[in-house]
Amino acid sequence: MTVGTAPRPAPLRTGTVVRVGRVSGIVRWRQLVVPLAASVVLVLLSAVSLGRGDFPISVPDVLRTLVGLGEGAQDFIVLELRAPRIVVGVLVGLALGVAGALFQTFARNPLASPDTLGITMGASVGAVAAIVLSGGTLAGFGIPFSALLGALLVGLLLFALTWRAGIDGYRLVLVGIALWSVSTALVDWLLTTADIYDAAAAYVWITGSLNARTWENALPLAVALAVLLPLALAASRSLAVLQFGDDTARGLGVRLQAAQAAVVLIANGCVAFAVSAAGPITFVALVVPQIAVRLTGGSRPPLLASGLLGALLVVGADLVTRTVLPEALPVGILTAVLGAPYLLWLLVRGRRQFT
What we know:
mainly alpha
């Protein structure tokens, strides 16, 4: 079932025309203000999160430490103990937000996300298999690398099974749901046959968590995003045309098959590296692009705003789980609690539109 397959109509007044000499363009102020505001809030929220813990540090002291003016003890606590967790959260949210915007724009369907397409569950298969089959002896980069392979494998299967001289958004969602079901069954089977201690460790991982993250977790994801984000932004021109359908895209001179393949592969890469760093933090890629498109007032989820709002959601959810709730929970539990009602609302709205 597809939900909301038609693109949202753009508002009549889309921006302000700015002319500089012979060069002119349209400035869409909301699409500039939303990423800037999200960046400012993200910095402040990250500073608050860096200051929370057994040794509280005020926000001004955290900011001074980040610019190199902190004291020795504060430098160690902020930069070595707490900063890796926040940086991984920012990078994971950024990657998931961008991937969700790519998938939803390409498929013209707000249900298209790494969660519903089976990619995050594929990463779970890789990680759980590594934990269970190695008897818990695999450490270091072993589990993240296995999760990366699992996500990439499911992403490539999704691409191969969907490809029919191009990729259809409706077929993409159906194949993705099938891959999600198969991956879920594999995870359940691995957990059932595992030793109780290995099963407990695997279950903690598949909930999605930022606990005990180090710079070793952040570095591969940062390098991957340094490559994938510019490619995603470069593909935004093709995305603007793809949302209106294949025939329109061909008529406007877009190399349809190459553009579709590039979008799917970039999105798969973002999800694979994000899940390998922090586990499957669900529903971020599903919810954030739709929030971004409503805040910016555009016709499709904006990549930059979606990424920044994704980072804001992950860092904020992690802060809530550590400071507000009675017990510190994995951040993936809170994002699932927030995202599940939204998914139900999408399904109910789609059914009403269909009937």
